[in-house]
Structure formats: structure tokens, C-alpha cells
Specification:
This protein is α/β, with parallel strands linked by helices. The protein is 32% helix and 19% strand. Helix 8 crosses helix 10 and helix 10 crosses helix 12.
């Protein structure tokens, strides 16, 4: 490599092929340490550790820093990294802002609880970093709007961590639905089974010395520490997330928005039940969405359609010529009563992914948006937020898609965002 061709030039110009490239150029695969993409990982619980493993395994990535508000997570992540890089001297932080201050870091991954996703991404954009952000995209509709605006203003790259998006099965479902073999798709049924755990009674206590509870809460309302509110089970509290529904929406709604690009949302109507225990996210939730020419139904139990009962998560496309049911790894098409796994006559039209994390790295080098880019992710995620608002208010809501507001409903519109805790509004 030309010694005058520095790392920043490499990152700007290295992507010379299409976004779907499956084999990187030889010079990229043999990149010297000074030419690697320098990535920092923020949030190192279960999914954050997966981020670390995925990116550490890519030859053109250097893990430059690790950050978590829990010292035990941070120490475990360092040991995980040593399994890939035994001689690593990676720097660690408890405050992600110290990472954003470093000009040598090119990109971050974010796997914090949901209520931190937007602020971290926006501050990273402002600091000139690209972002691989874990799902869901944001805590609220307003945050998604702010993220998109900031990304465009600062000309950054964003990938939503919908890893299932990279699989061949989802690619093939998209091709089949788009091909027209099902005819016009008029209804889609989505589901995810499973109830949240029963949490509590709350065991209020002093936070562990290893945990910065105040920063863990960050922009969320102040709350006394109890283990049930922290780490994995945070997702069952509306202050931080939206339960099983919010956790899994992007997993399966992704294939629907990719296939059909639903437009013209008119109404949202949700019903459900509060859980037992101290959590307050839905125990179960069913939501009906009315789009232009398309109805989408989410349920917490499998719908009464063939093949759904054997799938814990799935999508069922109903067209005027046939149906298609799928989950992560399987699909069945039914046309004129004949059930098949595929329709060979439908050509391959969607470029296969080189891998979700590789797609992000290549996009950063090309300066082009990756597959699960922010604009797409925001459109796909927004109906989830609206469903939770309808559930919280217990009534059907009318939506103005152009204005991204509910029609004549100040109470519902107030739930499109929230004020951050005093001292924690950093954007």
C-alpha cells in the first residue's frame, strides 16, 4: 500500500465495489493496523458482547475502546476481547462521552438499554462517528425524527442491528413477495409468543458499587435501584422499553417493511393486558394497523392460519393469489392449494448480504448507507411506538402520516416523545 495513503483516505476510498460486495479487495483484507476501521463498543451486556465478538472477528476492524456503566460487564468484555486479541491494550471507559471525544475512533456500536439509543447516536453523529445501533432504533417517535435529522446534517452512516436482515431466508421472502406470485398482498399477520417474567416484589437497595446507577438511568425518570429494573429485565418497564412487543417487533416487521414498504398509515388500534408483578410493559398486546390498501395485525399468540401454531414468531402474507408464511429460517408458499418451499421461476433479484456487520464496515468505507439504514429503520419502527401509545390510552388512534402526528388528539401526541431527566438532556 502506498505509504502516503493514510487511514482516513483508506476509509473514504476503500469501498470501490457495490454495497453487496461479498469479498473485499485484497488490500482491504490485508489492511495494516493503521488502516483498520477503529470501532468502540458502548454497552457490553449480552448483545453488546455479541457486537464485540462480531466486529473483533473482522480483519479490517480494530476494537479501539470499550464502555459500560457496570464495571463487571466491562471486565468481562476485556476478557472476551483477549480471546480474539491476547495482547490487547484496549482502553475502557464508564462514560461514553470520553469515547466520542477521541478523534481516532471512526465508529461506535451501541447496545445500551433502549432509552439511551437516540442520545448516544446523535452525540456520535455530532462527533463525526458512524453508528451501528442495536434495535429498537429509539425509545420514542420524536427521538427517531431527531436521529434522522442529525445523521443527515452530519453526513454519517447508520446501521440498525437487525442481524436477521442479512439472512438468505429473508432475502428470498422479499423476492417472492415482490414478484407478484401471491398477487396483491392485502393483509399481513405478525406475531411473537411469550409473556414477560413476573417481576418483584421490588427489592429496593443500594446499587452495587460496580454500577453507576445514575448514569444507567440517564435521561429516564429517577427511580430507586432494584435489580428487576436493571440489565436484561429493564425491557419490561415503560420508562426504558416496551416489553416483548418492543423487543421483537423489528425482528419480524423488518421482512414486511422490506417486502411491501407500507405507506399511508391511517389508524392504530391496540388492546392488551398489564402484567403481574412490578413491570408495566404489556403482558400481551394485539394491534391492528390500517394502511393504504394493506392491513397489518400484530398478535401475542399465533393467528388462526395454517402453519402459525408451530412458529413462536412469524409473518403471514395474504394475497389474492396465494399466501406465504415465514419465520427466521423457514417459509412456505401456498398457491391454489399447493404448498411449496420456493417458486424456482422467481429469479434472485436482491443482492445477498456479506454479513450484517461487514455490510456496515463496507458502507462506512464507501460512504453509502447500508441495508438497514436509519431512514428505513425509522419507518419500520415507528408503528411499534404508535401501537404502544394506543395500548396505553386504551383506544383507537387516527394518524396523519404527512405530519407524523395523531389527528386531533393532544393526549396521544404528548406521548410521541418525553422530556429527559433534568441534567441528562445532552442533545
Amino acid at each position: 500500500m502506498n505509504p502516503s495513503f493514510n487511514r482516513r483516505d483508506f476509509l473514504r476510498h476503500a469501498g470501490t465495489a457495490a454495497l453487496g460486495l461479498t469479498v473485499l479487495p485484497a488490500f482491504a483484507r490485508k489492511a495494516a493496523p493503521s488502516d483498520r476501521l477503529r470501532v468502540a463498543h458502548i454497552g457490553l451486556g449480552g448483545m453488546g458482547t455479541q457486537h464485540l465478538k462480531w466486529f473483533a472477528a473482522l480483519p479490517e476492524v480494530e476494537v479501539a475502546a470499550l464502555c459500560d456503566v457496570d464495571e463487571t460487564h466491562l471486565a468481562a468484555a476485556v476478557q472476551t476481547l483477549k480471546g480474539f486479541q491476547p495482547d490487547t491494550a484496549v482502553q475502557t471507559y464508564s462514560d461514553f462521552r470520553r469515547i466520542l471525544d477521541r478523534p481516532d475512533i471512526d465508529a461506535i456500536t451501541c447496545a445500551t438499554p433502549d432509552h439511551w439509543h437516540a442520545q448516544i447516536a446523535i452525540l456520535a453523529f455530532q462527533a463525526g462517528k458512524d453508528v451501528y445501533g442495536e434495535k429498537p432504533l429509539s425509545f420514542s417517535v420524536r427521538e427517531g425524527q431527531q436521529m434522522l435529522k442529525a445523521m443527515k446534517r452530519h453526513n454519517r452512516i447508520f446501521q440498525l442491528g437487525t442481524q436477521i436482515h442479512a439472512t438468505d431466508n429473508y432475502h428470498r421472502v422479499v423476492e417472492l413477495v415482490r414478484s407478484g406470485v401471491l398477487g396483491k398482498v392485502h393483509t399481513v399477520r405478525l406475531w411473537k409468543t411469550g409473556f414477560p417474567p413476573v417481576l418483584g416484589p421490588a427489592s429496593y437497595q443500594t446499587p452495587p458499587a460496580s454500577l453507576n446507577w445514575d448514569m444507567w438511568l440517564g435521561p429516564a425518570p429517577m427511580a430507586r435501584y432494584t435489580p428487576e429494573r436493571c440489565h436484561f429485565t429493564y425491557r419490561y418497564f415503560l420508562d426504558y422499553s416496551g416489553g416483548v412487543f418492543q423487543d421483537f417487533w423489528s425482528h419480524i416487521a423488518d421482512v414486511v417493511w422490506w417486502s411491501l414498504e407500507p405507506k399511508g398509515l391511517k389508524s392504530v388500534s391496540a388492546r392488551g393486558e398489564l402484567p403481574e408483578g412490578i413491570g408495566d410493559a404489556p403482558k400481551w398486546i394485539d394491534v391492528d394497523y390500517e394502511f393504504d390498501g394493506l392491513n397489518i395485525h400484530w398478535t401475542s399468540t399465533p393467528p388462526a392460519v395454517p402453519g402459525a401454531e408451530k412458529r413462536s414468531i412469524g409473518a403471514f402474507f395474504e394475497g389474492d393469489k396465494g399466501t406465504l408464511i415465514c419465520d427466521y429460517n423457514s417459509r412456505e408458499i401456498t398457491i391454489n392449494g399447493v404448498v411449496m418451499k420456493d417458486v424456482p421461476e422467481v429469479p434472485i433479484t436482491v443482492t445477498r448480504s456479506p454479513g450484517h456487520q461487514q455490510n456496515f464496515v463496507t458502507a462506512v468505507k464507501n460512504r453509502t448507507q447500508p441495508e438497514s439504514h436509519l431512514e428505513y429503520a425509522r419507518q419500520m419502527t415507528l408503528p411499534m411506538h404508535l401501537g404502544l401509545i394506543s395500548w396505553r390510552l386504551g383506544r383507537k388512534l387516527l394518524w396523519n402520516e404527512r405530519k407524523e402526528k395523531f389527528r386531533r388528539d393532544a393526549e396521544a401526541n404528548a406521548l410521541l416523545g418525553r422530556d429527559y431527566r433534568r441534567g441528562w438532556d445532552w442533545i
